[in-house]
Write a structure and sequence with these properties.
By secondary structure, this protein is mainly alpha-helical. The chain has one domain. The chain is built from seven helices and three strands; from the N terminus they run ααβββααααα. The protein has a three-stranded mixed beta sheet. The longest helix is centred in the last third of the chain and has 39 residues. The protein is elongated. The chain starts with 5 loop residues before the first helix and ends with a helix. InterPro entries: Zn_peptidase_2.
């Protein structure tokens, strides 16, 4: 019932997302085998960068969610690092730790896109949960107004994903700069760090592309039904 020519593009985007996810895991595994010249662990790198920014109030904790569950919690002001990153001394561990600290620096500096993202989160969270039900109900019962509301809600969730892109890329940029300026990686090691960070960013690009294509699809169907 919901098949549309746009579905071909969405399938391609899903393929890109799966490839990007495998690329993250592959690059992290490769980077995990390359020890950093500094010999520092992820937690040591995170602490040094935070201290260099005067962020002694930001804590670092070991995440219990498993590998690649690293994140920054702005509410608690805590950088949580997974076991391989927390204790790891590889360039992959340093890259991920520095990236999460990049978010803490954004938070402290009131980085505009991060502030905007935080304000959007409550709306996007509710919208992403309600949109599928509104769209399905609208299509099944042929209620254009319900479809329209569903599209608006879905669009809010897409905007959130779009705003996430510059936030993630900016955090990676801050991470690379800090690792180099503080002497925690060499210029030669920067290439490996960049591969890990770029692969992670690509997953956000792929998921955003999927959401955008789905939004366009729903808009096209809505217009076709009301033409």
């Amino acid at each position: 019932m919901f098949f549309h020519p746009m579905d071909f593009l969405i399938i391609i985007a899903f393929g890109l997302a799966m490839w990007a996810q495998s690329l993250v895991q592959r690059n992290f595994r490769k980077g995990s085998k390359i020890g950093s010249s500094s010999g520092m662990t992820g937690v040591e790198v995170a602490r040094k960068i935070l201290d260099s920014e005067g962020l002694s109030d930001v804590r670092i904790e070991l995440s219990r969610r498993g590998a690649l569950s690293d994140h920054y919690d702005p509410t608690a002001k805590v950088v949580r690092l997974s076991e391989p990153v927390y204790r790891g001394k590889s360039i992959a561990s340093l890259a991920v730790a520095a990236h999460e600290v990049g978010h803490a620096i954004q938070h402290a500096n009131h980085y505009s896109m991060l502030v905007f993202r935080h304000k959007l989160f409550p709306v996007a969270n509710i919208s992403s949960q309600l949109a599928p039900f509104l769209l399905i109900a609208g299509f099944i019962f042929s209620i254009p107004s319900l479809i329209g509301i569903g599209i608006v809600f879905f669009a809010a969730a897409v905007v959130f994903q779009l705003v996430t892109l510059p936030v993630e890329y900016n955090a990676s940029s801050r991470a690379r700069n800090k690792l180099i300026t503080l002497g925690m990686i060499t210029n030669q090691e920067e290439k490996g760090v960049g591969k890990v960070l770029n692969a992670a960013a690509l997953t956000y690009v792929a998921s955003t592309l999927i959401a955008l294509l789905e939004l366009v699809k729903y808009i096209m169907i809505f217009r076709e039904r009301n033409s």
